[in-house]
């Protein structure tokens, strides 16, 4: 195999992570996720929206913990057997590099290539940019910058 072919194949495939939520799957590039940690030591948020669950300690930082379902559709938050993914912030704010998202289960690694099928008839909720089909399952592409903006709107970042 020539080097040009290897480079071309690498450029046309990415690795993504499927995150299981209570009511949907999210698909993120693997570089968006810094780490998976247990759901524990959450300092509950007072007088805040239902989607902001509180703060979680991580590597000498205190990160805001969000529920994607509650932020996008006011769905009830379920933390039974929950885990937390630490997300790399995209907004370019110097003092805000990470936030945390509650999920269910362990993320699954998937290959993303140009043949990934968009599902145009799938209804999108707020904070969902698109929907795709992976092995017969529908996964939503989250608006991570939109989640960061919700935190900014509360003057948390």
Structure description:
The protein has 157 residues and is of the alpha+beta class. The chain has a single domain, classed as CheA-289, Domain 4 (OB fold (Dihydrolipoamide Acetyltransferase, E2P)), CATH 2.40.50.180. Helix content is 17%, strand content 43%. The chain contains three helices and twelve strands; from the N terminus they run H-E-E-E-E-E-E-H-E-E-E-E-E-E-H. This is Chemotaxis protein CheW. Residues 13-153 form the CheW-like domain.
Shape: globular
Class computed from helices, strands and strand pairing = alpha+beta
CATH superfamily membership, which one? CheA-289, Domain 4
Unreliable stretches (pLDDT < 50, length at least 5) are: 1-7
Secondary structure: helix percent? 10-25%
| CATH fold node name | OB fold (Dihydrolipoamide Acetyltransferase, E2P)
Cα distance spanning the termini: 48 Å
List the strand order in the largest sheet. Answer: 9-1-2-12-11-10
Q: Mind telling me which CATH architecture this is?
A: Beta Barrel
**Average residue-wise pLDDT:** 87
Please give the number of β-strands: 12
The proportion of strand residues reads: 35-45%
Number of helices: 3
- What value does the Rg take, in angstroms? 17 Å
Provide the number of structural domains.
1
CATH class: Mainly Beta
GO biological process, one term: signal transduction
Domain CheW-like: 13-153
Protein name: Chemotaxis protein CheW
InterPro entries: CheW-like_dom_sf, CheW-lke_dom
């Amino acid at each position: 195999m020539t080097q040009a072919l290897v480079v071309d194949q690498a450029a046309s495939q990415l690795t993504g992570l499927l995150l299981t939520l209570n009511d949907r799957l999210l698909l993120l590039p693997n570089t968006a996720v810094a780490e998976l940690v247990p759901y524990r030591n959450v300092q509950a948020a007072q007088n805040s929206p239902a989607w902001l669950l509180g703060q979680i300690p991580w590597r000498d930082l205190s990160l805001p913990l969000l529920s994607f379902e509650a932020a996008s559709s006011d769905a009830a938050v379920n933390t039974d057997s929950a885990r937390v993914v630490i997300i790399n912030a995209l907004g370019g704010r110097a003092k805000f590099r990470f936030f945390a998202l509650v999920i269910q289960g362990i993320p699954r690694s998937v290959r993303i290539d140009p043949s990934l099928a968009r599902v145009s008839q799938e209804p999108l909720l707020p904070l969902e940019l698109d929907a795709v089909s992976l092995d017969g399952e529908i996964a939503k592409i989250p608006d991570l910058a939109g989640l960061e903006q919700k935190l900014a709107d509360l003057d948390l970042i």
